[in-house]
Amino acid sequence: MESNADWGTRGGLPQAFLTPGISSFSEFLKGFAPEYLPGGRTLPAGATVDAPHGTTIVALTFPGGVLMAGDRRATMGNFIAQRDIEKVFPGDEFSAVGIAGTAGMAVEMVRLFQLELEHYEKIEGVTLSTDGKANRLATMIRGNLGMAMQGLAVVPMFAGYDAETGQGRIFSYDVTGGLYEEHDFYSVGSGSMFARGALKKLFRPDFSAEDAAVAAVQALYDAADDDSATGGPDLFRKIFPVVAVVTEDGYRRLPDEELGALVEGVVDARRVVPDGPRSPLR
Amino acid sequence: MTTPFYVSPEQIMKDRAEYARKGISRGRSVAVIFYDKGILFVGENPSRALHKISEIYDRIAFAAAGRYNEYEQLRIAGVRHADMRGYVYDRRDVTGRALANTYAQALGTMFSEGSGKPYEVELAVAEVGGEAADDQGYRVTFDGQVTDIRGFQVLGGAADAVSSVLEDSFEEHASLETVLNAAVDALGRDGTEPRTLAPNQLEVAVLDRTRPQVRKFRRIAGPALARLLGRDGADENDNGGNDSDSGTGKDAAAETAIADGDVLGAVDDLLEDGDSSES
Which of A17, A35, A123 should one mutate to test binding to chain B, selecting the residue with the greatest count of B CBs within 10 A? Predict the structure, then answer.
């Protein structure tokens, strides 16, 4: 196969750049330089790779927006590979994407996904719809199925502000690229069972953005409490979860000063009630 | 035996250059001007959808004059080139200089080696820096020549006429409002009769270094543009009046056509004016 890897060193524009009709960057890359696609490599059959894994992501909607949060731990077996990894990213101005699974593959996929949305916007002059964005991400995960079967799975979660309805929306995926719209709240990753249980008891439909942030921090605390691969807030090193809010004003990551106060509030309350807030029985 | 025609290489190049120049001169001009907080792009373009000015990357934008299908192809190639570079290296490694060079190589090859016709386009690539001294701009002509833009550059048909007007009014580090009004005034003096361009005939965009986002490109249209041109209120009413006048004119023409039994002619008359067909 002809390699296009020397595209940057040759003068002029390769023919592929001048071919009309493709608005998707990943489709363009597939034809031009497939070696740069996250799923474009093949592992030797039967081989498995030990690589860092990202863990728990939570998301919940509130009136007029959606919030996504992720803990900061990456693990490789019983070893903590990184204690301040970031797993929640902006997709574009009105969406967020969080990643669980093989960190290396996931970060690369997010980079390509961000570029995909920006590229489409520049070529077409309009942004993709929220469903269109969610579908593009599904296609990219589907392309990674071969790697997923050899242990390098990526399971993202997508959340966006839908300007048509004025609501926040959450989408989850499975390793085969299956796309499911979730309502109210959702969680993925190794600590997701515990986080989802916590969110089920804490979620209220009339949350403000700040309430939603506290609920997310509580849920991640519960996940870290019971799942060794999920990291809790580190008050000594000031490593807090990444919390991002998407509303009609766009994507905003809560700064550490703002989030720090909320996290300290949660941790202080747990000094008295270690299992966190109790929801009413009836 | 017939003797094949001999045409000297000089003549071939001259003919091709003349062909390209003629094509470019048919289009309306676009101006690229540096101002205190960034780089302004202004062109006369009544279309809202077919752009002459576009974002390429975070700090880089593109303007073109000439044939739409050809510069649109080059624009898309530029976006792909920049996105590819940013993906393989880093966002900071995408530069206007590299892009201008790429365009120059591509256009130069198409001009001198192409078996088809040369491209009838003239491009500008500009990159906004952290401060005014770091702003860069390049003009790339149909034959692949690159020149540095200093202060301002006009592309397209009446570039010389518009440039000579801008020459007099241009000053460095002026405000956006000043350079925009000077540019719109200059673009209107491309023929014998000076024209006043209305906001809806203009395509305006800036690379604004003060924008907090990574992407510095921003289009200016609608009320924001009218405000910058100092034409809110009175002029909009005038435009509205003109529109409705032309609308009733069209309706009247359509009615006459129907009375004459020319129904298809009536449909054409109505289609030419979107507003009146709804009434």
Answer: A17
CA distance B16 to B120: 10
Helix, strand and coil content of chain B, in percent to the nearest 5, comes to 50, 20, 30
CB contact under 8 A, B76 and A123: yes
Task: Tell me: do B118 and B216 sit in the same domain.
Answer: yes
What is the domain range of residue B264? Answer: 237-279
**Domain A53-272 CATH superfamily:** Aminohydrolase, N-terminal nucleophile (Ntn) domain (3.60.20.10)
Residues of B with CB under 8 A from a CB of A: 49, 51, 54-56, 73-74, 76-77, 79-81, 83-88, 101-103, 105-106, 109, 215
pLDDT at B241: 37
Residues B227 and B242 in one domain: no
Query: What integer pLDDT is reported at residue A42 of this predicted model?
Result: 74
On whether both B125 and B263 belong to a single domain, the answer is: no
| Nearest CA among A260, A253, A231 for reference residue A74 | A231
The answer to whether position B13 is within a domain reads no
What is the chain A residue with the closest CA to B57? Answer: A122
pTM of the model: 0.85
List the structure tokens of A85.
């990894």
Radius of gyration of chain A (CA): 20
Of B229, B249, B221, B149, which is closest to residue B187 (Cα–Cα)? B229
Q: Are residues B207 and B250 in the same domain?
A: no
pLDDT in tens, A161-196: 999 999 999 999 998 999 999 999 999 999 999 999
Tell me how many domains chain B contains.
2
Contacts of B73 in chain A (CB under 8 A): 18, 20
| Yes or no, beta carbons of B109 and A111 under 8 Å apart | no
User: Running DSSP on this structure, what letter comes out for residue B273?
Assistant: -
Residues B254 and B166 in one domain: no
- Low-confidence residues in chain A, pLDDT < 50: 1-3, 8-10
Instruction: Kindly state whether residue B10 falls inside one of the protein's structural domains.
Output: no
* List A9, A48, A55, A56, catalytic entry: A55
- DSSP E strands, chain B: 30-35, 38-44, 53-57, 60-66, 121-127, 136-140, 146-148, 152-155, 202-208, 217-220
